[in-house]
From TrEMBL:
InterPro entries according to UniProt: Glyco_trans_34, Nucleotide-diphossugar_trans
Annotated source species: Pseudomassariella vexata
Protein name listed in UniProt: Galactosyl transferase GMA12/MNN10 family-domain-containing protein
Region (Disordered): 1-21
Keyword check for Secreted: no
Membrane keyword on record: yes
Length: 339
């Protein structure tokens, strides 16, 4: 019986059979997606880094360069709408004239004021300027009127974009020594280095957050004083610039105004300083008598002859005319020193 031989295996390779066309189609689709993604990424990289030199040059050329004219703007917010008698009316007028007289001493401002509520003092000559406004000039909604100081300083920066420094001095205060200039008395590098109090608890007596021990005069943008209760916002100085805008906008943030701090903007400032190193790193606390002496020693350093200014801290709580009464002994005195 013959058996059929099993079929021989062919020695050549099997004929080529094309694969399903579905796989190449998927691969092509993926490759296309990857290619588009890579192109998009490269475009974004070029947009933000490739043209950075152009953007930086545009930014540097468009950034405002402060000329320092005027050197200083004195900012005061008044509440003259609520005056109740001649005594208070004359007191407000005296304070306004005090500010203008100090500015005139270091520049040119019109004197005397025609009306005690006149605030439009703006001349085109180099010298100190004043920014005297009413708290009702600003929309504060339900927040305490003391917050107006923050807006007023920000307003003054917009009104005098070339000023070097801004000095906020509250209504219930008088400038007593016209010979002291802010840029020399406070901001001169040697004096600021010598006067700034380093490693000081921000909130006395034992706050764990303290002023920087390695701070230099070049670092300082904000100058404040401290009394027995903590930081004082009745008299403070700020260097005009981008940091100042950032700081004031942060301070006036609706979140902080909604906290209902007991001392409103003062406690808000203490909160910000303790929680934001960006602000603490630019803050200098100086001795109180340099810009913020008090009428009495109850709350802080008492005024002495030769001090730049005197504040009647807390006078509004003593009586309706308490501020005018406390200021009375100094009203003729400041005029004598300015003569």
């Amino acid at each position: 019986m013959h058996f059929a031989y099993p079929p021989r295996k062919k020695s050549g390779p099997p004929p080529y059979l094309p694969r399903s066309t579905r796989i190449p189609t998927l691969r092509k689709s993926r490759l296309k997606t990857i290619a588009i993604t890579c192109v998009a990424i490269l475009f974004v990289i070029w947009l933000f880094s490739g043209s950075s030199s152009t953007k930086s040059s545009t930014r540097s050329s468009s950034r405002h360069v402060i000329t320092g004219e005027p050197p200083v703007v004195i900012v005061t917010v008044f509440d003259s709408k609520s005056v109740k008698g001649d005594s208070d009316y004359n007191y407000i007028k005296d304070v306004m004239e005090n500010r203008v007289a100090y500015a005139e001493k270091h520049g040119k401002c019109p004197l005397p004021l025609k009306e005690p509520l006149d605030a439009g003092i703006n001349v085109d000559k180099i010298g100190y300027k004043t920014h005297l406004v009413e708290f009702t000039d600003y929309e504060l909604n339900d927040t305490p009127r003391s917050w107006a100081k923050v807006v007023a300083v920000r307003h003054a920066m917009a009104k005098f974009p070339d000023c070097r420094y801004l000095w906020f001095l509250e209504q219930n205060a008088l400038i007593m020594n016209p010979n002291l200039k802010i840029e020399d008395h406070v901001f001169a590098a040697s004096k600021l280095e010598a006067n700034m109090i380093k490693d000081l608890p921000v909130v006395p007596p034992d706050s764990i957050i303290k002023t920087f021990s390695h701070l230099t005069a070049d670092d300082v943008e904000l100058v404040v004083t401290q009394d027995k209760e903590g930081l004082s916002t009745g008299s403070f100085l700020i260097r005009n610039g981008e940091w100042a805008k950032f700081f004031l906008d942060t301070w006036f943030d609706p979140l902080y105004r909604s906290y209902n701090f007991q001392r409103a903007e003062t406690h808000a400032l203490e909160h910000i300083v303790q929680w934001h190193p960006t602000i603490l790193s630019k803050l200098a606390v100086i001795p109180q008598d340099l810009i913020n002496s008090y009428g009495t020693a109850t709350k802080g350093k008492a005024y002495e002859n030769g001090d730049l200014a005197i504040r009647f801290a807390g006078c509004t709580r003593s009586s309706s005319s308490g501020c005018a009464e406390q200021a009375k002994p100094y009203q003729s005195k400041w005029r004598e020193t300015f003569a």
